[in-house]
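Before a colleague's protein record goes any further, I have to sign it off. What it holds is a sequence and that sequence's fold in C-alpha cell form. My question to you is simply how this chain folds and whether the C-alpha cells agree. Thanks in advance; the entry in question is below:
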Amino acid sequence: MRHLFIIPILLLMIGCTQDFEEINTNPNSPVAIQPSLLLRQVIYDYGEQMSYEGFTAGNLLGQYTTALDFNLFDRHDLKSPQLGGNPWPIFYKNLRDNEIILNLSQETPAFAVYEGPARILKAYMAAALTDLFGDVPYSEAFKGDSGTVTPVYDTQESIYMGEDGILDNLEKGIGAIENYEGTITLEGDILFSGDLDGWLKFANSLRIKYLMRISDKMDVAPQLQAIVTEANFIDENSENAAFDFTDGEPNNFRLARLRVGDFNNFVLSETMEDILTALEDNRIATLFRPFGNSDNGEFNGLLNGIDATQNAAVLADYSLAGTQFRENTGVLDANFMTSMETHFLLAEAALKGWITADTEQLYSTGVTHAFDYWHTELPSDYLTGAGAYANGNALENIITQKWIANMINGYEGWIEYRRTGFPQLRTLSASLNNDLIPVRMPYPAEEEALNSANYADAAAKTEGNSINVPVWWDSKGEN
C-alpha cells in the first residue's frame, strides 16, 4: 500500500522540478557577468579615481601644486594621506575586476574580443602600481574568490619582465587583437568606442613607455626601433587613450564636487611657477589663476611642504588651479596615454641613440600636442625661444616639457623625476622626511594587518617600508 502513494508523490515532484529553473529565474536579473559592463566600469572607475589621485597627492609629490593645510602628505609624511594619497585599493579593485574580464574572454568564445583590451589594461594598471610601490602582490593577487587572500609580493623585475607580466601582457594583448577573427564587437569601451586599432596604438605607446622606464636595466634599443619602424602608436591627440569628463555631475572631475575649502587647499607650487616663468610659458594662465591679491593678473606660487601650524599661508596671496579643474571640467579628460607623452618618450630615445629619428622634431611635436591638449595657443616663438629644444640641457628640456604636460597625472611627473632627475624639484619648506624627496610610496597600514607575513618580508626589503628605498628600475633613487 505504501507504494501506491509513492508514485503520485514522485509525479508531483517531477512536475514541480521540470520547470524549476524557469520558474525561479528572475527575467530582470542578469544570470552572468557581462564583460561589457565590467570594462566600462574598470575604465571609468580607474580613470576617474586616479585623475583625482594624480591631481591631489601626485601633484604634491611632483611639485605642481602645494597644499596650504591638511598637508602632512605634502611634507612627505606619506603614511598620512589627506584628500588623496592612498591609491592602493584603487589598483587592486580594478585589477581584480579586470581579471574577471580576462578570465571570461578565455573561458567563453563569445567574449574573446575582450582578451586584448583586458591584457593591455592589466599591464597599464600593474605598471602604475609597481612604479609607485615597488614589489607588490601580483601573481597571487586578484584571486580572492579562489581562496588566495594573503598573496605574496612579487619583485618589480618579475612584474615587468616575467610571464604574464607588463611587457608580456602587452605583447599578448596585441597578438589577441591581431588574431581575433570573430564578428562580435567590443562593447563598453569608453576609450576607443570599440575600435581595436586604437587599442593596438595604445599598447604600442605603452610598450615605448615601459621600455624607457626600465632602460637602465636592459638594452631596449632593438625593441624600441622595431616599434618605431612599424609606426603603429598614438601619434595624434585624436588617438589618445582618454575619456572626457563632463561639466555636471555625476561624470565631472571630482575636484568640482569637493567643498570649496578642499579645492582651495591646492595652489600653484613655487617649482611650477619658476619653471613656467623661465619658459615664458602661457600655459600658466590655463593651469592656474592669478592670485586674489594681484594687481595686474600675476601668478604666485608657494614652496611645497610648509608647516601650516607655524606659518599659515593666506589663500589670496597664491594662485589656485585653473577653472577646468573646478568650474569647467567638460574640457578636461582622464588620460591613460597620449600623443604628447609618446613623442617625448621617443625624443628621449632618439637623443640617446636608441632609435633612428629626428630628436628635435619629436620634441617639437610633443610640445605642440601638449599645448593643444591643454587648449592653449602655442606662441609663435616658443619653440625658437625659451622653449627651444636646443636651449640648455636637451634631456632636461624633454623631461620638463613632459612633466608640465602631465599635470593631471602628477604621479607620472614624480615617477619620471625619480627615473631621470628632471625637472629639478625643491627641498621642502618643512620636510618630515629629512629633506629627502621620496622615491617610493609606502605600503598601506592595512597590508600589515591583513597580509602580515608577506608584508613583513616586503617591509624588510625596503628598510622597514621606507619611502627612501628606490624601486628596481630606479638607478637615481639614492638621495
